[in-house]
Amino acid sequence: xxxxEVRDVSLAFSGVRALDGVSLAVEAGELFAVIGPNGxxxxxxxxxxxxxxxxxxxxxxxxxxxxSALPPHRVAALGVSRMFQNLALFDNLTALDNLLVGRHHLIxxxxxxxxxxxxxxxxxxxxxxxxxxxxxxFLHLEKYRDLPVVILPYGVRKRIELGRAxxxxxxxxxxxxxxxxLNQEETEDMARYILDLKDELGITQILIExxxxxxxxxxxxxxxxxxxxxxxxxxxDAVKSDPAVIAAYIGGAAAEAS
Length: 258
Fold this sequence. Notes:
40% helix; 10 strands; 6-stranded mixed sheet
C-alpha cells in the first residue's frame, strides 16, 4: 500500500476546475515531483493533500486512511508537514523560536504540567530543544539561531522555513517550490538538503516545481500537470521526452513571449 494515494481528485471554484481527475501514488521513502507550467494546479493539489481544500470529487488517503474530510491540523498530526512557497515565518522571533513553533503539536505535557513546570514539562522541553539543535546543525543555521528572522537573508529564511517543517517530524514532507526566489548557489544548496532528507533521514517528499530542469536529477518519479489534468507520469528521463510534456512547456513559453 502506498503511503499517499490521490484518487481521481477534482477541485472546482465557481465552475472553474483547478484539478480534473488527478490520481497519483507516492511510496514511502520516495522523492516524488509534481511539475507543470504556472497555473497548472500544483499548489491546489498540495492544498487538497494537506486538507486546506476539500476535493469536489475523489479523495486523498494517507497511510491507508481517508484524510479528505479531516481538518488541516489533524492531517498535520498524522505526519504531513509542508514548506510553503511564500514564507510564513514569524518575523520578530529568532530562528530558534521559529523552529520550536513546529514542535508545538508534539508537546503532550498539558496545561498544568507547563504551569507548574513539572518533570514531564521539563522533559518535553529538553527533547524539543535537542531535536531543534539537530535540525540547526543539519541545515547549517548555527550562526543565525539567536537572530530575528526579519534581518536574515532570504535564502537563510527559506532554510528556516524548511527546518520548521522538519521540526514537525514528518512522515510526508510537501515542498512547494522550495527554490523560488533563490540564486543559483542557494538553489544548489537547497537541492543538496532535499537529497540529504531522502538519503540520510528517509523522509518521503513531494516536490512541486515549474522548472523542469531542477527536478530531473532529484526525483525518483515525476508527474506533470497542465490545466489541472495529469498529462504524464514516470521516471524523469521518460517524462522529459514525452511529447505532451514538451508541448505543455513550449506552449507556456510561447504564451509568455507573446
